[in-house]
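User: Predict the complex with calcium ion.
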Amino acid sequence: MNKLNIVILAAGKGTRMHSDLPKVLHVVGAKPILAHVINCAKALQPNKIIVVYGFGGERVKEAFSSEEITWVNQAEQNGTGHAVQQALPYLEADADTLILLGDVPLVDVEACRKLIAQADNKLAILSFNKTDPTGYGRIVRDVSDQVHAIVEHKDATEAQRAIVEVNTGIMAMPNVHLKSWLSRITNNNAQGEYYLTDIVALAVQDNISVVAEITEDEWSVTGINAKTDLAQIERVHQNRIAQALLQQGVTLKDPARIDVRGELRCGRDVEIDVNCIFEGNVTLGDRVKIATNCVVKNAMIAAGAQIAAFTHIDESAIGENSRIGPFARLRPGTSLASGTHVGNFVELKNAQVDVGSKINHLSYVGDSTIGKNVNIGAGTITCNYDGANKLRTVIEDDAFIGSDSQLVAPVTIGKGATIAAGSTITKDAPAGQLTFCRAKEQKSIAGWKRPVKIKK
Ligand code: UD1
Ligand code: CA
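Assistant: Here is the predicted structure with calcium ion placed in the model:
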């Protein structure tokens, strides 16, 4: 295997996206289009990855500042051949180059590998048969079926336009030849551009074999030009993820109604109902069940946990056999031990809840440490913010917090303490005792009448 350089063409403007964001930074599966292409390139373990950028250049570079990439600016976009010319000074004389397009997110590593293997002292191009080839470069073959040239749509004759085998734009060749061919291309064509595709005819002139590998997977060579393409590719990408999950044994109630925008790892016998979105890194343990319409981001959900409908989980960990939701919101820093229950309209933030504790209804618990087997009644609020600082609430094991209580932090509720319903607790409550803090007496006014509406 020869040394490998990869050039990714990404200088195009993307006018048809109608967006201020450079085209290659639009996302598929929450990752920039260009990130998919760079990941494919990295999987091929090249000596060098060169990205030719232009429109919105600095933003593109910034988005990939952690990658080892040689960035080459193509200030004016004078065609794909001109783009590769800009990369020439960075190509290694003794290497082969693979050309990829920065706007083809589903590019296939295996197809590239095959193409590179073909490029040994040859020009190898990836082609496919397109029902409607309009706009594409046509693969022109001679009588003996040898690839003879690529003719761009705008330059093609009627007969050539009838050809359905088209150029994907992905090709591989030895750098010595590439250098020579690029020095000989002209912009003498319908678009006044330097076409990379003209190197095919030059290879034929030089008696260098040209091979075309025909791919069957059209999506893997489909470029994004408009939002309609982006939406379509997103569905294809999501469907592939869903199929892979089904293959692994995950139950998806409808593979067309799940979105994975990142990495979803699942144990055995996981069930996911419709319309759930998984973002970032999510791990679901064995037998986890996720009901409909949940959003789960950067979370670990341990075996046997059940997440009921309309629950939002963000940067949180959920212990085994816990029951969360419906309509619960777990915000960053929440960690629940095993067997916890969090019910409807409960918001947790930076709260650590120990084994078997329950927060079942209408509560806010933030910046709190909750012990084992604690019961937090409906409508409990930890008042964690004094307007300037975030302060902690500690509730020790076996405590019981009566409904509609406010715990004004910093405050500690002792082990086994009981807080009477409707209390506003501002001082530590001792272990094992009943603490209450409400209006002294309950009054009733005999003969009191409700106000009546005044007639005008
Ligand atoms: C190109 C091919 C065509 C092929 C088609 C596949 C040429 C001349 N034509 O056509 O045979 O069927 O792709 O989609 O190569 N780019 C630059 N700098 C430029 C021009 C383009 O970096 O000056 C980049 C674009 O960002 C894009 C890629 O090259 O990623 C292809 O450019 P595009 O304008 O889409 O090429 P087409 O004319 O569609
Ligand atoms: Ca194109």
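The longest strand covers residues 165-174.
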